[in-house]
Amino acid sequence: MIIQLKNVNYTYNPGTxxxxxxxxxxxxxxxxxxxxxxxxxxxxxxxxxVQHLNGLIKPTSGEIIIDGKSLSSKETKMKEVRxxxxxxxxxxxxxxxxxxxxxDIAFGPKNLGLSxxxxxxxxxxxxxxxxxxxxxxxxxxxxxxxxxxxxxVAIAGVVAMKPKVLVLDEPTAGLDxxxxxxxxxxxxxxxxxxxxxxxxxxxxxxxxxxxxxxxxVMHKSKVAMAGSTREVFSNADxxxxxxxxxxxxxxxxxxxxxxxxxVKDDVLTIEEAKEEILKYLRSNRDA
Length: 287
Fold this sequence. Notes:
Elements: E1 3-12, E2 20-30, E3 35-40, H1 46-52, E4 61-66, E5 69-70, H2 78-84, E6 85-88, H3 101-111, H4 116-129, H5 134-137, H6 147-159, E7 165-169, H7 177-194, E8 197-201, H8 205-211, E9 214-219, E10 222-228, H9 229-233, H10 236-241, H11 248-258, H12 270-286
Parallel strand pairs: 3-8, 3-9, 6-7, 7-8
Antiparallel strand pairs: 1-2, 1-4, 4-5, 9-10
């Protein structure tokens, strides 16, 4: 297990008229190599939760354990924790500041005190992992790039730190459909190649369905539901009661089955639906 939260509570502005409980007795466990989806309505506590994972926010009460080390222990060095858990905020391109893409991605590794050779290797590797050509782009300004490419540079800067856990908070926010699909494809490749643990925060049920293997659902500052992707999306009524939905293709297949067609209605992607409908049509043809 790489992440464990035990009875974690967090309150903003305690003891003031603006007091707000953002996390309410949160318990969860994440295993190494998991691809986690974190979903929930706006204000449910998602962003507050992920900021606890590398110590940007400290819980009001409860315990957070990262890779076997409690964040509340005086012996735990937060610098080491932040190397293990890389956090990519919404619109991370706003944090780009260096004059070249190379320097921007190299900034974190250089601060680790690595040799120039190791820094260079990490920059090359990180750019390759997010689909950026090293020779073509290394000397270009990040501000000349498209929105999707800027976001890749920002993600590469975190990946170059070689974290064991990568947290992505709405990584496709504000991108056009092409940029969105490209980023999601690179995230999937990154997971498959590096086998790191990824936590994806997203409002898109389609993105969650096609990428993750487990889901935590936040509602009113609590973990309201947890399970495999298929298990969670099978609870459509419960999700809708929390202001959430299920993937459009799953909704279509549920309606298709309700009309009397003998198909599985727990499909998550268009590819699965296509396969299931073809199977249904062949069985009817052969009957």
